[in-house]
Amino acid sequence: MRRRAAAGASAATLLLLAGCTAGAVQVPLPSPEPEAERLCGALAEGLPDEIFGQRQVPTEPESDLVAAWGDPAIALRCGVERPEAYRPDSQLTVVNGVAWLPEPADRPTTYTALGREAYVEVTVPPSYSPPAEALVAVGDAIGEAVPALPDGEL
Fold first, then answer.
1. Cα(85)–Cα(62) distance, rounded to whole angstroms?
2. Minimal CA–CA distance to 137: which of 56, 17, 72, 62?
3. I want to staple 145 with a disulfide (CB 3.0 to 4.6 A). Which of 28, 43, 60, 79 is the partner?
4. Going by C-beta distance under 8 Å and a sequence separation of 6 or more, which residues neighbour residue 108?
5. Residue 120: strand pairing partners
6. How far apart are the C-alpha atoms of 115 and 128, rounded to whole Å?
7. pLDDT tens-digit map of 94-106
8. Which of 79, 70, 80, 81 is nearest to 25 (CA)?
9. Distance from C-alpha of 45 to C-alpha of 41, rounded to nearest angstrom
10. pLDDT confidence of residue 45
11. Are strands 59-60 and 98-103 parallel, antiparallel or unpaired?
């Protein structure tokens, strides 16, 4: 049930981001466990001010669990559930030591960092290319703030 809600939240993120106007960007909050929430707070402190030359913008609600940059907004949600689409044979993209699950597989716009003590989701609108630039920018902060799980765990 929670996984279905997480998948719905990802879809909701895309819908809300697509409809945002001037002001704060609407980004649905995840509901992480307390330890993941603590790690997300540490991550929020290390996030870059800019991605693709786009400045970080306010979010609604304001929380350490979410962040956004630019217009159209690149959005980050920390403490999300493991993606329902993940399978042991899923193709992952590794950028600077962080493994990302791209979704949808054919033209990804959402990437979830796996193999960390908190899952982090980044939505990159197709107008930003290559999306790896955003993954590098937030991946360095993830590497600093969110410890890797033991080998073999995702």
1. 28
2. 56
3. 43
4. 102, 131
5. 78, 113
6. 25
7. 999 999 999 998 8
8. 70
9. 7
10. 97
11. unpaired
